[in-house]
Amino acid sequence: MTDAYSHRAVWRIATPMMISSISVPLLGMVDTAVMGHLDDASYLGAVAAGSTIFSVLFMGLNFLRMGTTGLTAQAFGAGNNDATREALGQAVITALILAGMILLIQQPVIELALMLLAASEAVSGFAKDYFAIRVWSAPATLANFVLIGWMLGMQNARGPLAVTLAINLTNILLDLVLVVLLGMTVRGVALATVFAEITGLVVGIYFVRNILRGNRGHWRYDRLLLLSSYRRLLTINTNLLLRTLALMFTFSFITVQGARMGDAILAANALLLNFQFFLSYALDGIANAAEALVGKALGAGDRQGLVTAVRRTLHWSALFAALFTVLYLLFGEHLIALLTSIESIRSTAGEYLPWFIALPLISVWCFLYDGVFIGITRSREMRIIMMGAAIFVFLPTWYLFQSYGNHALWLAFSLFMAARGIGMYGWYRHLVRTGKIFA
Question: Model confidence over 102-122: pLDDT tens digits?
Answer without folding.
Answer: 999 999 988 888 787 666 777
